[in-house]
Amino acid sequence: MDRAFLEYTLKEIRNHKGKPYQMANEEYSDALFLHVKQIFPEAQMVKCDIAQYIVVTKRAQTALIKLLLDSKAKHENYITEIEAALNGLN
What is the Cα–Cα distance from 53 to 20, expressed in whole angstroms? Predict the structure, then answer.
C-alpha cells in the first residue's frame, strides 16, 4: 500500500471517527485495517457485497447499522415489486 495513501486514509478516519469509512477495494481495506487496528484497538471491519466498512467508534457502528438496515428495507421493497411483476406475468 502506498505510504501517502495510507497516511491520507488514516487522517480521514481520524477526522470522521463517528462515520463508517467505506472502501470498495478489498485488498486495500484488508491492508488498511491492520494499521487502523493498531491505532483503534476496538475497530471493526464489516464486509457487505462489494463494500468494506471500517468503524472505529460506537457512533460509527450505530451509523453503519442504520445504513445496513435502510439498505435491507430498500432491497425488501425491490423484492416485493419483482414478485408482483412476476405474478403479473403468470
Answer: 6
pTM score of the predicted model:
0.83
C-beta neighbour count of 33 within 10 angstroms? 17
Instruction: Please give, one letter per residue, the 3-state secondary structure of the chain.
Output: CCHHHHHHHHHHHHHCCCCCEEECCHHHHHHHHHHHHHHCCCCEEEEECCEEEEECCHHHHHHHHHHHHHHHHHHHHHHHHHHHHHHHHC
Gap between the Cα atoms of 90 and 82, Å rounded: 13
With cell 491505532, the residue in question is: 39
Residue 90 reports pLDDT greater than 80: no
